[in-house]
Write a structure and sequence with these properties.
- The chain is α/β, with parallel strands linked by helices.
- It has a domain at about 80-105 and about 210-385: Rossmann fold (3-Layer(aba) Sandwich).
- About 40% of the residues lie in helices and about 15% in strands.
- The protein is built from 15 helices and 13 strands.
- The chain has helices spanning about 35-45, 45-50, 85-90, 110-125, 135-145, 160-170, 180-195, 205-210, 215-220, 240-255, 275-280, 305-315, 325-340, 345-360, 395-410; strands at about 5-10, 15, 30-35, 80, 95-100, 125-130, 150-155, 175, 200, 230-235, 265-270, 320-325, 370-375.
- The strands form three sheets. Strands 4-5-13-10-11-12 form a six-stranded mixed sheet, with helices on both faces. A four-stranded parallel sheet has the order 8-7-6-9.
- Helix 5 (about 135-145) links the parallel strand 6 and strand 7 (about 150-155).
- The termini are far apart.
- Bound molecules: pyridoxal-5'-phosphate and zinc ion (ZN).
Length: about 400
C-alpha cells in the first residue's frame, strides 16, 4: 500500500487526486506528491530498510507506487566510492563519489524511470514516452522493454552516437528531432495532450521526480546513516538537485539520520548555465538560454525546476558554479586517471566544479563531501577522444619500443 495521499501544487497548495497530472489547473504551478509521513514512520526503520532488496526499491515506502511489482531493471544501490587519490589532489580528506554511472542503462535516470514506469503501469498505460537529452531515452527504452510496453522516445538529432545507439538497441520508436532539447520538450508537451501515452517527464513527472530521492537515501545509508556536509550535483532541469535535498530531509524527519546540514552545490557547464546566472544575479527568476555546451546531457536552456533549485541553494547555504567548456573533458579525464571511473560530460562538470569549490575554500579539507557522478563515459567518447593517445604499432618488438620512446618523449 502506498503512503501517497494526494498531489499538491507547489505554488498555490491546491490538492489533486493521484492521477497522471503535472500542472495545477488554477495557477499552472508544478504538482508534487504528498505523503502520510506518520504512517510511513510507523513502518519504516533502519532495520527494515537493511532487510530490503539491494536496489532503490529498499526505500519503496517513500516512493509513490502502490506496492505491486515494480518495473525494475535493478536500478540503484550503486557504489559510494571513497576517493583518496582525487581527494589528495584537491586537498579534500573525506571525498566520496556516488557512482551512478553503473546503473543498468548507465545513468541515474534508471531511478526516476523505474518509478515512472511502475506508476504508468498502475495507471493503465501501455506506452512509455519521454523528451530526452539522451540518458532518459536509454532508460525509458530499457524499462519499456522490461515491462513489455511500447516506447516513443524523442531526442535532439545532434546527440552523441553512444546515446542514440544506446537507446535504439532496446527497440523503442526513437525520434530524432531537428532542434534543441527545449524544442523537443515543447513538441512532447503537445503530444502528451494528443496521445494516451505516459510521458515520464511530462504527465508522470511528479512521480518520476521522486525516484531521485533515492540518491540521498543511499548515500545517507552508505555513510553510516548520516548526510554529508557537501553534495556536488550536475544540473539540467534542476529536478534531481532538489530531490536529493528533499531525500536527506525526509530521512531526518523520520528519525533515520540526525540533523541535516548538507550544503547543496549546483554545477552546470558555462555553455548552458541559466540557473547559475540567476543565482549570480541574486534572482529567483531563470532567464532561458540557447544551449551551446559539450555536456549535452545538461543542455536544457529552460529548466522546469529552476526556481526550486535556486531555493534549494538558498535554503542549504549552497553555491552555483559554471564550469568553462574546456574543463568538462578535463574533469572526465581527471576522475578516470585518479579513481578509475569513466564518466560523461555531466560528471566532467561535477569534477571540475568540485575542483573550483575546493580551491575557493567553499569546501574545507575535513568536510565530508559527496560528488554525484550520474552518467557513463562510454556513451560520450567523442568528448574525450582528443585527450587520449593509444599507441599503434606493427606486431614487432622494435615497433613497440619505437612507439614507447615516442610516447615517453611526448
Ligand atoms: C547524466 C545526467 N546527469 C544529470 C542530469 C540532470 O538532471 P535534472 O534534469 O534532474 O537536473 C541529466 C539529465 O538529463 C543527466 O543525463
Ligand atoms: Zn496552483
Amino acid at each position: 500500500m502506498a503512503y501517497v495521499t494526494a498531489l499538491r501544487c507547489r505554488s498555490c497548495s491546491r490538492e489533486y487526486a493521484v492521477e497522471p497530472l503535472n500542472v495545477c489547473e488554477f495557477c499552472f504551478g508544478p504538482l508534487e506528491v504528498v505523503y502520510d509521513y506518520d504512517a510511513i514512520a510507523r513502518v519504516l526503520s533502519r532495520e527494515r530498510i537493511v532487510q530490503g532488496p539491494l536496489s532503490m526499491w529498499r526505500y519503496a515506502a517513500l516512493l509513490p507506487v502502490d506496492g505491486e511489482e515494480a518495473v525494475d531493471i535493478n536500478a540503484g544501490f550503486t557504489p559510494l566510492v571513497r576517493c583518496r587519490n582525487l581527494g589528495r589532489l584537491l586537498g579534500l580528506e573525506h571525498l566520496y563519489v556516488k557512482n551512478d554511472a553503473v546503473n543498468p542503462s548507465y545513468s541515474f535516470k534508471d531511478r526516476v524511470v523505474s518509478v515512472a514506469a511502475t506508476k504508468a503501469r498502475e495507471f493503465g498505460f501501455d506506452t512509455l514516452a519521454c523528451a530526452s537529452t539522451g540518458n532518459l531515452a536509454c532508460s525509458v527504452a530499457a524499462h519499456a522493454a522490461r515491462a513489455s510496453m511500447k516506447a516513443y522516445v524523442f531526442i535532439p538529432a545532434d546527440l552523441e552516437r553512444g546515446k542514440v545507439v544506446g537507446a535504439a538497441v532496446y527497440n523503442p520508436t526513437l525520434v530524432a528531432v531537428d532542434g534543441s532539447y527545449d524544442d523537443v520538450n515543447r513538441l512532447c508537451s503537445e503530444l502528451a495532450d494528443a496521445y494516451p501515452w505516459a510521458f515520464v517527464n511530462i504527465n508522470i513527472r511528479p512521480y518520476y521526480a521522486e525516484g531521485s530521492k533515492t540518491l540521498a537515501y543511499e548515500v545517507a545509508e552508505q555513510l553510516g546513516w548520516r548526510a554529508p556536509d557537501h553534495a556536488v550535483v550536475p544540473v539540467a532541469s534542476g529536478s534531481m538537485f532538489t530531490k536529493i535535498w528533499k531525500g536527506f530531509h525526509e530521512f531526518a524527519s523520520l528519525g533515520l539520520i540526525g540533523k541535516v546540514a548538507t550544503r547543496m552545490h549546483l554545477t552546470q557547464a558555462e555553455g548552458c548555465s541559466p540557473i547559475v546566472e540567476a543565482h549570480r544575479a541574486n534572482s529567483l527568476h531563470v532567464r532561458p538560454v540557447r544551449p551551446h555546451t559539450i555536456a549535452k546531457s545538461l543542455a536544457i536552456g529552460n529548466p522546469a525546476d529552476g526556481l526550486f533549485a535556486l531555493r534549494t541553494i538558498r535554503d542549504s547555504h549552497g553555491t552555483a558554479t559554471a564550469v568553462p567548456e574546456e574543463e568538462v573533458a578535463q574533469g572526465i579525464k581527471l576522475l578516470a586517471e585518479t579513481e578509475g571511473i569513466f564518466t560523461e560530460g555531466a560528471g566532467g562538470v561535477v569534477v571540475s566544479g568540485l575542483r573550483h569549490l575546493a580551491e575557493e575554500g567553499a569546501i574545507k579539507p575535513q568536510e565530508l563531501t559527496v560528488a554525484y557522478i550520474t552518467g557513463n563515459g562510454l556513451k560520450t567518447q567523442e568528448v574525450v577522444e582528443h585527450l587520449v593517445h593509444p599507441l599503434a604499432i606493427r606486431p614487432t618488438l622494435a615497433s613497440f619500443e619505437e612507439a614507447l620512446r615516442g610516447a615517453v618523449a611526448r
